Amino acid sequence: MSDSGPAAIPRRIFVYLRALVRFAAFIVLGPLVGWLVVVIGLMLRGVPDDALHALPLSLAYGYAIGAIPAAVAGFVVAVRDVLSRPVTPIFALALGAAVGAIWGVYLASTGAGYVYLGTLAFVGAIVATLACWWVTRGLRREAMR
User: pTM surpassing 0.90?
Assistant: First the structure.
């Protein structure tokens, strides 16, 4: 099938909209999943009980901090979608590890006490990228029908 002519215009618009939906899903879901990983990791390490009242505030902070790596991963997935290159689970894992490594090193470098937080951010980025990929993987399959 050719990508030229009047019929290609609606298909191209559909491809860009699909990529935009995937990008938006990463922005909305990624920080939430990453935040959950970090909170669970901190609880396993032993967070004081009186710190639990700050969970709603930490969610807002998690979105503020997690939006950047989620946007990077979402952008890469969206661009691959536009270029008609499917994102495999291995690619999503590698992308999450790359984004998480950069983000984790950055967070760990902001202070000596944040090395554990950097490790949790690394794991959180991997889990969030895989979760977002899993949620949006059906978009390509539906488009191919």
Answer: no
* Phi–psi pair at 131, nearest 5 degrees: -65, -45
Helices 89-109 and 115-144, interaxial angle, to 10°?
150
Q: Which two tokens stand for residue 52?
A: 């639990």
Distance CA 19, CA 69 (A): 17
pLDDT tens digit sequence for 83-123: 878 889 999 999 999 999 998 888 777 765 567 778 888 99
